[in-house]
C-alpha cells in the first residue's frame, strides 16, 4: 500500500500542528521554557484588632515553607496551657490568656491555620509532622503524645545547645529531635488542620507539658524571593503594623546544623 505524502506547504503545516503541544515547554523570547507557577495553599487567620474585636481573614499564598511554617506548629488537639487550664489549640480565641514559661499570662493576638498537604512523588514535604511520644523528654513531658509541625520550635536544653551561649537553651525545629524510637515523623493519610499562635511577646508556651515557642518571624522575610512575596507575607499578620512589632526573641533559635557549626 502506498501512503499519500504532503505535497504543499499547507499540508506540511497541517501535519506539523496536528501534534499536541505541551504548554509548559513553550519557549519565551529568551528561548527558556516558561516557569511553572508555584502551588497555592489556603491559610486562615483570626486576630485581635486594635478595638479588641476578633477579626478573621483568609489568604491564598504559595506553599513555600516560609509561609506554611508560620501556620503549622500544632496539630489539632494540642493542649495549650491557659489561665483556664489546658485548652485545645483549635478552641483558642484571640484575647485568651496563654500561660508562658517566662512572662506569666499573655494575650493571644493571632491564630493561624492551614491544612497539611498529602505526600506526592514530587513533593519534598513527605512527612510534615513530628510525633513526640508521652514521656519522651521525661515524666509528663509530654503527656499525652504531642504532634507538631516539622519546624515548630521546641526547647532544646542539650549541652550542645547551651554551648551556643544561651544558658537556658535554644529553640530547635521539631524535626531535629527525631530518633526513630520515641520521636518520629508522621505522614497523615489525609489532610489535617494545623495551627500556630502569636502572643504580644515572643515566649515559650506549654503544650501537652512540653515547652514550644510562640510564633516569631525571625529571618523569614529574608528567605522570600521577591518584594511581592514579602508584602504578601506581612499582610498575613494584620494584628501588627510592621514585622518589627513582634519584638525580640526570648531565646535564640538554632537547628542542629547551626549548633554544630557554632561549636566547631
Short description:
By secondary structure, the protein is α+β, with helices and mostly antiparallel strands. The protein contains six helices and 15 strands.
Would you kindly provide a written description of the structure presented here, covering whatever features stand out?
Residues 1-27 have low confidence and may be disordered. A hairpin with a 2-residue loop joins strand 14 (204-207) and strand 15 (210-213). The strands form five sheets. Strands 1, 2, 3, 6, 7 and 13 form a six-stranded antiparallel β-sheet that branches. Strands 9-8-12 form a three-stranded antiparallel β-sheet, with no helix packed on it. It contains six helices and 15 strands. It is an alpha+beta fold and 264 residues long. It has helices at residues 9-17, 65-69, 159-162, 220-223, 227-235, 256-263, and strands at 40-48, 54-62, 74-75, 79-82, 85-88, 97-99, 105-115, 129-132, 146-149, 153-156, 170-173, 183-186, 193-199, 204-207, 210-213. Helices cover 15% and strands 29% of the residues. The protein starts with 8 loop residues before the first helix and ends with a helix.
